[in-house]
Amino acid sequence: MTEQRLKVAVPAPFPEALDYLPHELPLEPGMRVQVPLGRRQVVGVVVRAPEWTEADDGLRCRPVTRRLDDEPLIPADVLWLCQWAATYYRYPLGEVLAAALPGTLRKAPPARPRAVRARPPRAVRSQAPPSAPHPPNAEQAQVLAALAEPGDFQVSLLEGVTGSGKTEIYLHRVQAALDAGKQALVLTPEIGLTPQLEARFRERFGDAVAVFHSGLTERTRADAWQAARAGRCRVLVGTRSAVFTPMPQLGLIVIDEEHDASYKQQEGFRYSARDVAIVRGQRAGLPVILGSATPSLESLHNVSRGRYRHLRLATRPGERRLPKVRLLDLRGIKLRDGLAPELAQAVATHLEQGGQALLFVNRRGYAPSLLCHDCGWLAPCPHCDARMTLHRSRGRLLCHHCGSEAQVPLRCGSCGGPELIPVGQGTERIEDGLRRLFPDVRVERIDSDRTRRAGELERLLGDIRNRDIRILVGTQMLAKGHDFDGLTLVGVVDTDQALYSADFRAIERMGQLLTQVAGRAGRGSVPGEVLVQTHQPDHPQLQCWMREGYSGLSRRLLDERREMGFPPSAHLALLRADALDAGAALRFLREVAAQISGAGIDALGPIPAPMERRANRFRAQLLLRSTDRVALQGSLGQLLPRIAAIPGSRRVRWSLDVDPIDLY
Ligand code: ADP
Ligand code: ZN
Ligand code: ZN
Questions:
Q1: pLDDT band at residue 663 using 50, 70 and 90 as cut-offs
Q2: How far apart are CA 606 and CA 271, in angstroms?
Q3: Distance (Å) from CA 428 to ligand 2 centroid
Q4: Cα–chain-centroid distance for residue 504?
Q5: What is the secondary structure of 494-527 as a DSSP string?
Q6: Cα separation of 596 and 331, whole Å?
Q7: The ligand 1 atom nearest the CA atom of 481
Q8: Cα gap 198→204, rounded to integer Å
Q9: What is the DSSP letter of 643?
Q10: What residues have CB less than 8 Å from 165, skipping those under 6 apart?
């Protein structure tokens, strides 16, 4: 018997697309269909059109319930990209496709939908008054000349100190793409950054711009997606998942702050939007611009191998100068509310001169632990191998790892002692201290606790810009992208955490963060000052950053990684497992390790995760490493089907992270 079968990728953990029988034709790849799956009805995407097959495999296929699109919603290039990502990240294609679609399009519409047809692109309205581009300075002109060379796929790493005019370069190149009748995709790391970037693109290109990020309603996201797909939106500015948006006339991809870890999705479909974007550019044969003041070691490595072109902006346009940076040696110094007297004095001086000050603290809450003075007990999370963080403003203890909350105890949980001391500095504590030191000026804290309410961040940013807020205390939320003209002093309250960390990327991150935070100072015409508090003023890597800046530090780190055999000199894949009973995850990963095959593949571990118990589950990890990406991919391809057969694989939860950013 022969019958017509088609392949549909469904949002469920199957490695392959499933066979169905056609119900109404035509059914083409990229169209959504409603199909039965077990007892449910789900929305899937056709990945192969119906074909006549010899149906002698004994499988009874079920028919498609309903076709949801009259023409492919997902065009061939994006379908290809999703297939590439599903293979590379070893994630089910149906789930990848679901992640690539805005929420409203993942659900079946109640009635027959109207046809979604690509409308012809509208000319970019030159509405009044789109701001004129700055005439490029000499350095920018050089970069623009290099970028204007005709050619197809080419990745350019634009390394430019903060405030050197990278965004101006993007705007010029986007304009050139629009002039050539093309669309442009601009990726940005976080919503915190988007308002300002969005504003600059809107100012320049008006209605041609649409934005796409998780802070928008589903409806708005879907509209932006459809507008890009139909060619009505010419410039899409979006976060991670925007990389999968159909753009039929795509001519340019820009990835701003390319080093930012938030391009990597940390759960479920663990893709790197930066890397997927580069693959998309390569496939479509178009230029990709990676921009950063602090490029990732991966991108610098690709430059040194001649894969990417390196373009630089070393100065700030006009009168702006890079800030002066100094380390404040904390050893033996009496701190007041976490601040050295010299830093407090510097805040006072800058305020007197009319400037604003930013104090950077990388921890939310009041204090990262609560200590019993009598016995040394530290308030623990009952569900994790971690301490509870004291949040004074909410009057609670919070676990930053599992989210559990508790009342602030009045007595020690071990000896009953009455004296509990908050230890360490969080944003709330620094804010408190500064309010006491500077009662006459407005001090505000900007972290994810403070800016939870919609619109709050924008309001605070506005009040910084109009200089109503004079002192700001912020987490890394403030480190990037924001451009505050009046900010003249940046104080880094604590760098030492990174220097002690076991994470192999900790120093790279520290260098990026310090450089980015420092870059917030002196964007106006007054020169900036940066003070970095540390107990380790002689630490070689901190010294290297002081002397040679991020580029010197990154050269040094690249050498170290080569010696250690770590990325970017090698490629990693991390298998994580967790289970309710202690030891089960580790036993499971031992079995997995025994199945690993392939030449040139190292298995490191398994070992218990650095924080073994989290949310009551015991976690372990196994690292696969190879200097050969293709060999590593091949090994994963052989390994994954074998994992399901391992006894006990159902009692553990496990996941694979290809090119992991965090090793825990
Ligand atoms: P980056 O993206 O590297 O941080 P921006 O593009 O935001 O830098 O530029 C920093 C500031 O300098 C902005 O206020 C921008 O308007 C201004 N600027 C950029 N290029 C020029 C130029 N050629 N002439 C004058 N001002 C410029
Ligand atoms: Zn005690
Ligand atoms: Zn916890």
A1: confident
A2: 23
A3: 25
A4: 18
A5: --HHHHH---TTHHHHHHHHHHHHHTTS--SSSP
A6: 49
A7: 4
A8: 10
A9: H
A10: 134, 136, 137, 139, 140, 313, 316, 317
Determine the residue type at 650: R
Q: What's the mean per-residue pLDDT of the chain?
A: 91
Task: Provide the pLDDT for residue 500.
Answer: 84
In terms of Cβ atoms closer than 10 Å to its own Cβ (0-12, 13-18, 19+), residue 297 is buried
The helix, strand and coil proportions of the chain, stated in percent and rounded to the nearest 5, come to: 30, 25, 40
What is the Cα–Cα distance from 369 to 389, expressed in whole angstroms?
Answer: 5
Residue 182 pLDDT? 97
Nearest Cα to Cα of residue 646 among 590, 564, 578, 567? 590
Tokens of 547: 């002397």
Q: Ligand 1 in contact with 134 (CB < 6 A)? A: yes
Evaluate: CB of 160 within 6 angstroms of ligand 1.
yes
Residue 234: DSSP 8-state: S
- If you count them, how many residues does the chain have? 664
Q: In this predicted structure, what is the pLDDT of residue 128?
A: 44
Angle 38-11-242 from CA coordinates, rounded to 5°: 165
Q: How far is CA 636 from the centre of its chain?
A: 24
Give pLDDT tens digits for 503-562. Answer: 889 999 999 988 988 887 776 667 789 999 999 999 999 999 999 999 999 999 999 999
DSSP result, 160-224: E-TTSSHHHHHHHHHHHHHHTT-EEEEE-S-TTTHHHHHHHHHHHHGGGEEEE-TTS-HHHHHHH
pLDDT greater than 80 at residue 337: yes
The DSSP symbol for 64 reads P
List, for residues 14-26, the tens digit of each pLDDT value.
888 999 999 888 9
Q: Which ligand is nearest to the CA of 615?
A: 3
pLDDT of residue 485: 83
Task: Kindly tell me the sign of the dihedral angle through the C-alpha atoms of 451, 454, 458, 463.
Answer: negative
Among all bound ligands, the one having the nearest atom to the CA of 382 is: 3
Q: Tell me, what's the pLDDT at 455?
A: 83
- The more confidently predicted of residues 459 and 280 is 280
User: Do residues 200 and 171 touch, judged by C-beta distance below 8 A?
Assistant: yes
Query: Which residues are CB-contacts of 21 (< 8 A; sequence separation ≥ 6)?
Result: 3, 4, 5, 6, 61, 62, 63, 64
Q: What is the pTM of this model?
A: 0.92
- Place 124 in a pLDDT band, splitting at 50, 70 and 90: very low
- Ligand 1 close to Cβ of residue 162 (< 6 A): yes
At 551, is the secondary structure helix, strand, or coil? helix
* Interatomic CA distance for residues 356 and 254, integer angstroms: 32
Beta-strand (E) ranges in 396-468? 396-398, 405-407, 420-423, 442-446
Q: What is the pLDDT of residue 516?
A: 87
**What does the pLDDT read at residue 119?**
47
CA distance 361 to 497: 11
CA of 507 to the centre of ligand 1 (A): 28
